[in-house]
């Protein structure tokens, strides 16, 4: 994780993350080289990481594969771009965060099994209440996309 160098009510300054690629690029590289095991490992780690973020009541607000970096040296995943983040203990807000990530993965990497991420997330959170809420958010999202 990047270290916090400075923070106030409106700003957070983190250390720079060098020698990394976006999670999106990592998935593209793995798909191209047929490394499904690397994709699965990344999804499991991502589930654990997002759960840790949510456990401290932080909602990222823009969970996409472009807002995570994969370190070249050990392939660990680092979250970035907390510009839309906020504090909340609401399962609804956590579920919306997950829904944004699910839609991002489906649109850019349709062959990736999002359930691997969800299983890891649920195991790390120790509850399935957010998954139930995610189903409700998905239902609303489908209605919205059908109506326009």
From TrEMBL:
Residue ranges constituting the Protein kinase domain according to the UniProt record: 1-148
Gene Ontology cellular component list: cytosol; EKC/KEOPS complex; nucleus
GO BP: tRNA processing; tRNA threonylcarbamoyladenosine metabolic process
GO function term, MF aspect, one: ATP binding
UniProt KW keywords: ATP-binding, Kinase, Nucleotide-binding, Transferase, tRNA processing
PROSITE patterns named among the record's database cross-references: PROTEIN_KINASE_DOM, PROTEIN_KINASE_TYR
EC number per UniProt: 2.7.11.1
Family the UniProt entry places it in: Belongs to the protein kinase superfamily. BUD32 family.
Protein's name according to its UniProt entry: non-specific serine/threonine protein kinase
Origin species: Sarcoptes scabiei (Itch mite)
């Amino acid at each position: 994780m990047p270290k916090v160098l400075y923070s106030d009510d409106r700003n957070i300054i983190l250390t720079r993350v060098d020698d990394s690629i976006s999670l999106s690029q990592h998935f593209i590289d793995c798909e191209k080289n047929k490394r499904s095991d690397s994709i699965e490992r990344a999804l499991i780690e991502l589930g654990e990481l997002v759960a840790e973020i949510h456990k401290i009541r932080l909602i990222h607000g823009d969970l996409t594969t472009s807002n995570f970096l994969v370190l070249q040296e050990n392939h660990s995943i680092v979250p970035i771009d907390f510009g839309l983040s906020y504090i909340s203990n609401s399962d609804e807000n956590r579920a919306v965060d997950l829904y944004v990530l699910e839609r991002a993965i489906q649109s850019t990497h349709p062959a990736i099994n999002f359930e691997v991420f969800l299983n890891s997330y649920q195991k790390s959170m120790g509850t399935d209440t957010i998954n139930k809420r995610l189903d409700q958010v998905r239902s609303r999202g489908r209605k919205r996309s059908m109506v326009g």
